[in-house]
Amino acid sequence: MTRADSAGDDAPPFRVSFVCTGNICRSPMAEVVLRAHAERAGLSDRLAIESAATGDWHVGEPADRRTIDALERAGYDGHHHRARQFEAADFPRLDLVVAFDRGQARILRNWAPGPAEQDKVRMLLEFGPESADLQDVPDPYYSDEPMFDRVLEMIERSTSALFRQLAPALRQGIR
Question: How far apart are CA 86 and CA 16, in angstroms?
Fold first, then answer.
């Protein structure tokens, strides 16, 4: 998170983008989960959350049906999602870009216009201490429904940890 003087209610929202391969499985899950945390905490106006893909295969499509089903089983709504591709031009308006595997992180860092933007790229599992021995969130696309549920559980743990790190500064209006 970028630190600036506390701007209180006038502070622009902290902007997070979750980026996976196609923007139909992992990144929409994380977007929905983090948005739910922000809404429950009354901080949705201080946190702008989006998701995108490194590839363009699914641009404009809804989340994968298995993603929507896994989210529903866990009490979330993923019906409103539409896939989009991340662009290097997105970096300046974002504070944090979260990748799900090392390949995506490498692509994003290569697309970054400079070192400051490269530093915005983080791996999701970095935020959850219980996932320290893992680096990548597996892509469930070629798997079955139980794998989507397991991936969502991993995403929930790490996204919750990310929100716990962001929430104090968000409450104080610090960016």
Answer: 12
Active-site hit among 64, 90, 101, 139: 139
pLDDT at 9: 63
Active site residue 139: yes
* Alpha carbons 26 and 157: distance in angstroms, whole number: 13
Residue 130's H or E segment, with its range, is: none
Contact 113, 91 (CB under 8 A): yes
Phi-psi region of 86 (alpha: psi -120 to 50; beta: other; left: phi over 0): beta
- Structure tokens given for 42: 């009354």
pLDDT in tens, 97-127: 999 999 999 999 999 999 999 999 999 999 9
Which residue from 90, 164, 155, 85 is spatially nearest to 125, judged by alpha carbons? 155
Catalytic residue among 25, 26, 84, 90: 26
Is residue 26 annotated as part of the catalytic site, yes or no?
yes
Active site annotation includes 106: no
The pTM is what? 0.93
Number of other residues whose CB lies within 10 A of the CB of residue 25: 29
* Coil, strand or helix at 170: helix
